[in-house]
């Protein structure tokens, strides 16, 4: 694509922004003045970087209503200081009431983890999903087709990332202080635009293992 085409494309983004801001202000007079004074989101969204899964849009929320962290395949690693910093700020400063880990069916990161191809740096990032694939191999391979196997691992990945959120010192300490918030595991269907609750919602440390075990024993795919 020629440079002039790229310039035209980028200018179009600014034009889109002006239209969007004007419409928001028309629908909600004073919206940006109020937004500039504070943010008070009730939800922290930990999702996949996939451009087809925009957090605010798919749950119908406006700017300021959702605090968002996204990465490839919605991973929560105890050594990922980016994710942990977001989680700490959301829990301790913003005092969100809900932490949502949201994956999506057909996730490219999950697909890549199931293939025996070298991907460079991504191999390190997807190591945890590779391990999940091996741990749950029997249940996954029992499904009749590859797409179903990928989607089953997408579900398992979300549930296990909920476990990882619960294991962080940030969440453990907040629960010990008596702070009230719930961690949820959801999954999104790009093919139909619908969210699904994977039946894993945890509000206190003592409920983690039992809740996750129940969710893992009855994945949604088993009922299709």
Briefly summarize what is shown.
Helices cover 51% and strands 16% of the residues. The chain has 224 residues and is of the alpha/beta class.
What would you say this structure looks like, in words?
- This protein is an alpha/beta fold and 224 residues long.
- It folds into 2 domains: 1-37; 39-223, Beta-carbonic Anhydrase, Chain A (3-Layer(aba) Sandwich), CATH 3.40.1050.10.
- It is 51% helix and 16% strand.
- It has helices at residues 3-27, 31-37, 55-58, 81-93, 108-113, 121-125, 127-135, 137-141, 146-167, 169-176, 208-217; strands at residues 43-48, 66-71, 98-104, 182-189, 194-202.
- Strands 2-1-3-4-5 form a 5-stranded mixed β-sheet.
- Strand 1, helix 3 (55-58) and strand 2 (66-71) form a beta-alpha-beta unit.
- The longest helix has 25 residues, at 3-27.
- It is globular and about 55 Å long.
- The termini are far apart.
- The model has no long low-confidence stretch (mean pLDDT 93).
What is the gyration radius calculated from CA atoms? 19 Å
CATH topology of the largest domain: Beta-carbonic Anhydrase, Chain A
Separate helix tally: 11
Structural class: alpha/beta
Question: What's the arrangement of strands in the largest beta sheet?
Answer: 2-1-3-4-5
- Percentage of β-strand residues: 15-25%
Helix content: 40-55%
Classified by CATH, the class of the largest domain is Alpha Beta
What's the mean pLDDT score? Answer: 93
Identify the quaternary structure here.
Answer: single chain
**Largest sheet, strands/sense/barrel:** 5 strands, mixed
Distance between the first and last residues' Cα? 44 Å
Overall number of strands? 5
Number of domains: 2
Could you list the spans in which at least 5 consecutive residues all have pLDDT below 50? Answer: none
């Amino acid at each position: 694509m020629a440079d002039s085409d790229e310039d035209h494309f980028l200018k179009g983004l600014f034009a889109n922004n002006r239209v969007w801001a004007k419409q928001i202000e028309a629908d909600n007079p004073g919206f940006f003045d109020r937004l500039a004074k504070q943010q008070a989101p009730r939800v922290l969204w930990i999702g996949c970087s996939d451009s087809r899964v925009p957090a605010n849009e798919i749950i119908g929320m406006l700017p300021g209503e959702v605090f968002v962290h996204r990465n490839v395949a919605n991973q929560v690693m105890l050594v990922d200081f980016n994710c942990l910093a977001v989680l700490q700020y959301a829990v301790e400063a913003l005092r969100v009431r809900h932490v949502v880990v949201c994956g999506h069916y057909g996730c490219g990161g999950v697909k890549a983890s199931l293939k025996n191809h070298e991907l460079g740096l991504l191999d390190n990032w997807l190591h945890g999903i590779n391990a999940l694939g091996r741990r749950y191999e029997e249940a996954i391979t029992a499904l009749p087709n590859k797409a179903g196997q990928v989607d089953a691992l997408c579900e398992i990945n979300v549930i296990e990332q909920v476990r990882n959120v619960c294991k962080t010192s940030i969440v453990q300490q907040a629960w010990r202080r008596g702070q009230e918030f719930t961690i949820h595991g959801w999954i999104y269907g790009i093919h139909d635009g619908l969210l699904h609750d994977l039946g894993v919602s945890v509000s206190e440390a003592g409920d983690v293992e039992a809740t996750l075990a129940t969710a893992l024993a009855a994945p949604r795919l088993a009922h299709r």
